[in-house]
Write a structure and sequence with these properties.
2 domains; alpha/beta; 376 residues; six-stranded antiparallel β-sheet; TIM Barrel; nicotinate phosphoribosyltransferase; 14 strands; 13 helices
Length: 376
């Protein structure tokens, strides 16, 4: 039996800001479909933390009345296995993702004997990253990877090490600030169920701009459907000469739009130039196209997905320097770092809206309910 750990009085200070804002936008638009969300982890390990995660979801929502929760029947998981599945009105639980992912990640990490995060080591890591990235600001984006009770400590280590911001109000409060964020995949996917995939990234940017106060940076995620160049240009045209940002977070299952294949198949490139995920080739292609179209001065690129890896940081930092020398524009203006120490991490993906399949490109998955049990 799992040992229950206390829950916070309020989950919102510990929640990634982009989920809070996604809920605000959907509420304002009156959008609340039944959304299916599944949680999985990579690698292999012992299934832990699900009871505590379910408790957190039911404590801070009415899923018990409006939806259902399923968990795996297995005691051991492997990559892509569904650990937990939620079906409920999206407004019921969209702002709980940071909390339940952190709870499960913490439990499966502890189960393999990995020690808890070390403040000094995290601080030293950010100090090294700051030296590598130079003047490029680093934001700590890893709240959902670790237990909510560790958020303040990890965020403090990141900020002391050189990060300029964090994604939660709790973490940023150490420096007297509020958390920051971008538009998340979940918001774009829910909107895509209404507006279709072709122009939904633009619609996401429009609604964020409509409902968020003007002092909040306009930063739009553009990789949900693997159309990084196409969607970046649509967003740029919408904002015109107004300052805005795009975030590229292309997952490891995809090769960015317009990029060449690495050795003819989908795989990572140790030089970080080609292949899957956020690569130098992809970011260069997007930035050059934006500059060519006349948006080089109004829109900039923020990068996430693996940018706490110091080898990747060096490769991108060197490319940024070369790009600036060649074009007088930066290649990217900031990075988000989530994985700050050794741990097992969980991911949550939308897989259906109102019973109809919809996925982030590259993450298509058929749910095998015979391997799950309904617990709520």
């Amino acid at each position: 039996m799992e040992i229950k750990k206390k829950l916070p009085k309020d989950h919102k200070p510990y929640t990634d800001k982009y989920f809070i804002r996604a809920k605000q936008i959907l509420e304002a638009e009156g959008i609340n479909p039944i959304a299916g969300m599944r949680v999985f982890a990579r690698g292999k390990g012992e299934v832990k933390g699900l009871d505590n995660a379910v408790e957190a979801i039911t404590h801070f929502s009415d899923v018990e009345k409006t939806g259902e929760i399923w968990t795996t029947k297995d005691s051991i998981y492997k990559t892509e296995d569904t650990l937990l599945l939620i079906k409920a009105p999206i407004l019921t639980y969209v702002d709980l993702e940071t909390l339940y992912l952190g709870i499960i990640s913490d439990a499966i990490t502890e189960a393999v004997g990995i020690s808890r995060p070390d403040y000094n080591k995290i601080k030293e890591k950010f100090q090294r990253l700051k030296l590598i990235y130079g003047d490029v600001p680093i934001t700590y984006f890893g709240a959902r990877h670790y237990h909510w009770s560790l958020d303040k400590e990890i965020a403090q280590a990141a900020l002391d090490g050189g990060a300029v911001q964090t994604s939660t109000d709790n973490g940023s409060s150490y420096k007297g600030m509020k958390g920051v964020g971008t538009t998340p995949h979940v918001l774009t996917l829910v909107l895509a169920s209404i507006y279709g995939k072709d122009k939904v990234t633009l619609k996401t940017a429009e609604l964020f701009d409509k409902y968020m106060p003007q002092d909040i940076a306009r930063m739009t995620l553009v990789d949900t459907f693997n159309k990084e160049i196409t969607d970046s240009l649509m967003v740029a045209r919408f904002f015109g000469k107004r300052k805005n940002f795009i975030r590229i977070d292309t997952c490891g299952e995809n090769i960015g739009e317009g990029c060449s294949l690495y050795k003819g198949k989908k795989e990572k490139d140790p030089s970080y130039n080609l292949g899957t995920g956020v690569t130098i080739e992809l970011v260069t292609n997007v930035r050059e196209r934006l500059i060519k179209e006349g948006y080089g001065g109004s829109i900039e690129i923020f990068l996430t997905s693996g940018f706490g890896n110091e080898d990747k940081a060096r490769a991108f930092s060197e490319s940024n320097d070369k790009f600036m020398q060649r074009t007088n524009y930066n290649l990217f203006c900031g990075v988000g770092v989530g994985e700050v120490c050794e741990a097992k991490f969980c991911t949550a993906d939308i897989f259906e809206i109102n019973g109809r399949p919809i996925y982030k490109t590259g993450r298509e998955k058929t749910i095998d309910y015979s391997k799950l049990k309904r617990v709520v």
